[in-house]
Each structure stands twice: as C-alpha cells, then as structure tokens.
Design brief:
There is one protein chain. By secondary structure, this protein is an alpha+beta fold. It has two domains: 255 residues, Jelly Rolls; 37 residues, no CATH class. It is 28% helix and 21% strand. The strands form two sheets. A seven-stranded antiparallel sheet has the order 1-9-6-11-4-3-2. A four-stranded antiparallel sheet has the order 5-10-7-8. The longest helix is centred in the N-terminal third of the chain and has 11 residues. The termini are far apart. The C terminus is likely disordered.
C-alpha cells in the first residue's frame, strides 16, 4: 500500500554513489521540510531539557524508549547513571575510552508508528538492497528510532561481514545539533596500516574488528541534520563515533537500520592486537598466511632466483 514516505524510495533510487572516503550514498534534505519538522517536534523525539540523568531516563522510559544491547555499550542504565553522574568512564573495549548506552523507541504517536513501519517495510528495504545489488530474501531486516547518550563510542571499524547494508539518518531535535560532538566519522587507514584492509579483503573467513582511532584519519563527518548515509560494508568502510556532549539539553537521535546476511561463513575474528603483530619476528598464523597470499615472501623468491641463475644477486632486487 502507498504511504506518505514513498518519495524517500525514489530519492534512494536516484542518488549517485560517492567514492570518498569509500563507496556510499549521501543525501541531504532526505525528508521533506514538513515531514522533518514533524519528526523533530514529536514529543517522543524532542524531550526538552532535563535536570539530571535520572530525570532523563525516567522521561525516556515514559516516552517509549528501551535500552538495547548495542556494540560498545552497557545495558545497565543504573550503572550508567552512577558512572556518568560521577564523571567516571567504563572501558569495555580496548580501542575506546568510554562506553555509552543506546535506547530504541517503541513509538506511540500515529506519525512515528507509520514512519517506523515504513523503515521496516519490504519496499523500503528492497530499495536499499537493490541499490547495493543485494537479494533481500538473503537478508534479515533490523531498524528503528534510536537515541545515543553521552559517552557512546565505537572506534573505527568497517562492520562485520555479517552485515549486508546499513543506513543512518540524523533526526536531531536541537537546532544547534550540527555543532555538537556526537556525529559519525567516516575514515581511512593511515598508510602504515593499509595492510589490515588488504588482509580483510584477501581473507574471506576472517571477520572485521574494531581498530584504534590513531590508526585512522577522519575524512568527513555526518553532521548535517536530515541527512542519510547508506553503504554496503566491505574492507574499507571505516566509520566511528565518539559522543561527548550534554545529553540533558538534547540527545543524538537517528533513524538507524541494517540488512543482515542470513548466513555468513567467517571462522575467526583477529583482534587489533593480533593484527598489530604483523611487524613481529614470528607473526601469528593468519598474518603469515596473509603475507604469503599477497606475495610478501621476497626472500624465498630471491632464493629461487639464485638457484635459477647464480649470476643474479640479492642486491639487484
């Protein structure tokens, strides 16, 4: 059945791909001005100012939000309040300085119910799948309206190979949100760490993990309100977030969704510590295999050349 949001599908269909810092679709003014204004003024999106963390969570729960299990986050909101209110941090991933908390809305207003249903609809997700040459029948859909509180951090990562496609729409209710420090970074590896990207590309069975911030350079940030980014994760789709802002004034809010492959045959997930072993005398097995696969066995090649022609010296190479 037709919906009020069907025009968004045509925007995705017509949008060109951008290639920097990796292949993706970026669209500004995604929603019509009327729809966007209605989204950010809904009482479930625009909570107003709160006096403290406890009041904020009471309001979030009252408006229909629930804490969800999300990468880089804790799910114990009481623990979060205790730490955040005292200025302490909780480090659950060695590539991050802090851990945040994420909540997803179960909408109550008719307008947001219709929007949430559209995000989960077959026709919307077919448009995403078609854009990236995916078969929707091979994927599961997961999407929703989410708020990310202060301290939310996920270090640079391309996304797991189980993820087929992803989208993020900024629907921040504060009129100064573009200046807040809570936006998604899009990055590339620094030259000395490019080998990791090559390893992920060359080893189908190896899943992709988070890496330290200092290994990467931010090329752009998705600051614009009412903008959407879509991409199909691969070895180079590095993105990250480090939210440091006053969530009592307003909260980072997104429409967020993924297509997940129903099956994925990765068998191991080398951590950043293991990937860093590339420079050691005796690298771990997967890095050694990686070197061999890329032809980084120069000493063996030279030995064979010596045998073939004793007049050729290693110095010549």
């Amino acid at each position: 059945m037709p919906t009020a949001f069907d025009y968004l599908i045509e925007k995705i269909n017509l949008a060109p791909f951008e290639i920097e810092p990796f292949k993706h679709v970026y669209i500004e003014d995604f929603f019509s001005p009327e729809h966007f204004e209605e989204i950010i003024t809904e009482r479930e999106i625009n909570l107003g100012e709160c006096s403290d963390d406890l009041q904020l969570f009471q309001l979030l729960f009252d408006r229909g939000y629930k804490v969800i299990d999300f990468p880089g986050c804790i799910t114990d909101y009481k623990k979060y309040i205790e730490l955040h209110s005292s200025g302490k941090t909780l480090k659950i991933n060695e590539t991050c300085e802090n851990s945040g908390i994420v909540l997803r809305l179960e909408p109550k207003s008719p307008f947001l119910i219709e929007l949430d249903s559209f995000l989960q609809s077959r026709k919307f997700n077919e448009a995403i799948a078609r854009k990236f040459n995916l078969n929707l029948s091979d994927c599961n859909v997961d999407s929703g309206i989410q708020k990310y509180l202060d301290g939310y951090e996920i270090s640079p990562h391309p996304d797991t190979k189980r993820k087929a496609a992803t989208f993020m729409v900024n629907v921040n209710p504060h009129d100064q949100s573009e200046a807040f420090n809570h936006h998604t970074h899009y990055l590339t590896f620094k030259p000395q760490y490019k080998y990791i990207e090559e390893f992920w590309q060359s080893n189908e069975k190896a899943d992709r993990e988070w890496v330290p911030w200092e290994w990467c350079d931010t090329k752009r940030r998705q600051e614009k309100n009412n903008s959407i980014v879509l991409f199909a994760p691969h070895h180079g789709t590095l993105h990250a977030v480090k939210a440091e802002y006053d969530h009592l004034t307003s909260q980072r809010t997104q429409l967020y969704g993924n297509l997940w492959f129903q099956s994925c045959e990765t068998t191991f997930s080398p951590s950043w510590e293991e990937l860093q072993k590339k420079e050691l005398e005796e690298p771990s097995g997967f890095v050694k295999k990686f070197r061999q696969k890329l032809g980084r066995t120069k000493h063996r090649l030279l030995s064979k050349l010596e045998v073939t022609d004793k007049n050729i010296s290693k110095r010549d190479y």
